[in-house]
Amino acid sequence: MTSDRPLLLNNARLVDPASGREERGGVLVQDGVIKDVGSHVAVAADAEVVDCSGQVLAPGLIDMRAFIGEPGAAHRETLKSAGEAAAAGGVTTIVSMPDTNPVLDDPAIIDFVLRRARDNCIVNIRPAAALTKGLKGEEMAEIGLLREAGAVAFTDGARSVTNAQVMRRALTYARDFDALILHHVEDPDLVAQGVMNEGEFAARLGLPGIPREAETVMLERDMRLVRLTGGRYHAAMISCGDSAEIVSAAKARGLPVTCGVSINNLALNENDIGDYRTFLKLSPPLRHEDDRQAMIEALNDGTLDVIVSDHNPQDVETKRLPFAEAENGAVGLETLLSAALRLVHSGQVSLPRLLRALSTRPAEILGFPGGRLQRGAPADLIVFDPDAPYVLDKRQLKSLSKNTPFDEARLEGQVTITMVAGRIVFDRRNGSRDSNV
């Protein structure tokens, strides 16, 4: 339970991407919400005071794309372990993907996940339901019933809906229910046997490539279907400059379109695969450095709306294989913020712009009340030192799976405190303070 006693986070560098606020001050929290915020908030009678020591205090991160093994693959990740990893990385809300066993295509399964998360997870879990039954891409799922059960969006997760008629019908129904479609834009026929970005580097490694057109052809089709139906659409992850141009043109036409990018495609490029590092086998694949720079530019000009972790835990049996045979995916909840801060330290992206893509825009797109430092907003907050250096040791990750692309990487920026609904669930100074899990 949240304490009746107010909590004052004081002596902080406030960064609110929703309002543009950036100043020294504090945040007063009571009953799970922000009661006051600003430079004038320095003392409060009867409040428990936490000295932030000049560190950044910002809204908690909202990750719009994370795969969690439970139900069905709890050996890869449970709701509990995912929550612990998220809290350590400053993620206060996870949108979980429906790629589970059973698939999240039934209201009863959505209800199960919500109840299970409530009892076992220290951060907010908001499930996205399957767009098609069984993720087969053939028959649309019950969007209305699933939305009523608590689904916040609809997606086939790591699969694309290749049938244009099914996608048209889904967008039409989504429009009528004001539901959001999240789509993985990758044409499987063009991907074929490809395992990394098509180009000179793939040729040197002797690996079959995936052309950018596998992404752009599917994305272009979807833009036309959005124009036809008027349904709300979010491209889950784009990875190349051509895709950014397609989304930018759609937005210029006034279409209800948004898009995301994986932190991996912002922080890494195909060269990082090096000597066949399977932890960097991803979907979409890591692209050429020119495409990575195009993604950064798209983030700065507003074409890219959100940054996601694309957290996808895989065990050693699926990753300790030849590159072409290994599964796609990397864990990312715990390293999302640190990896993203590379762009700030390099001077390519401002901190407010970065936090907007990690928190405010996801909240706006999904209709969540968080993502802002304002009175009445949920007290889902993080305190972090953007300059704290460390070398990542995958053995120290809280995720059950250790397939991080940043193993042994030098990173800067560590979360000190994570708060969910006014309760401190992670405190690097003292360990987790949550007593209900």
UniProtKB/TrEMBL annotation:
Q: What class of enzyme is it?
A: hydrolase
The record's comment on cofactor binding reads:
Binds 2 Zn(2+) ions per subunit.
Positions bound to Zn(2+) 1: 310
Biological process (GO) annotations? 'de novo' UMP biosynthetic process; purine nucleobase catabolic process
> Among its keywords, does the record have Coiled coil?
no
- The answer to whether UniProt assigns keyword Transmembrane to this entry is no
GO cellular component labels: cytoplasm
Enzyme Commission number(s): 3.5.2.3
Keywords recorded for this protein, A-Z: Hydrolase, Metal-binding, Pyrimidine biosynthesis, Zinc
Q: Which GO terms describe its molecular function?
A: allantoinase activity; dihydroorotase activity; zinc ion binding
Cofactor names? Zn(2+)
Dihydroorotase catalytic domain residues are 54-240
Q: In which pathway does it act?
A: Pyrimidine metabolism; UMP biosynthesis via de novo pathway; (S)-dihydroorotate from bicarbonate: step 3/3
**Ligand binding (Zn(2+) 2):** 184
In terms of superkingdom, the source organism counts as Bacteria
- InterPro entries from the UniProt entry: Amidohydro_3, DHOase, DHOase/Allantoinase_Hydrolase, DHOase_cat, Metal-dep_hydrolase_composite, Metal_Hydrolase
Q: Where is the active site?
A: 310
Please list the reactions this protein catalyses.
Answer: (S)-dihydroorotate + H2O = N-carbamoyl-L-aspartate + H(+)
**Amidohydrolase domain mapped to chain residues:** 347-426
HAMAP family, per database record: PyrC_classI_B
| Role this protein plays | Catalyzes the reversible cyclization of carbamoyl aspartate to dihydroorotate.
Q: Report the sequence similarity comment from the record.
A: Belongs to the metallo-dependent hydrolases superfamily. DHOase family. Class I DHOase subfamily.
From the Swiss-Prot or TrEMBL record, give the protein name.
Dihydroorotase
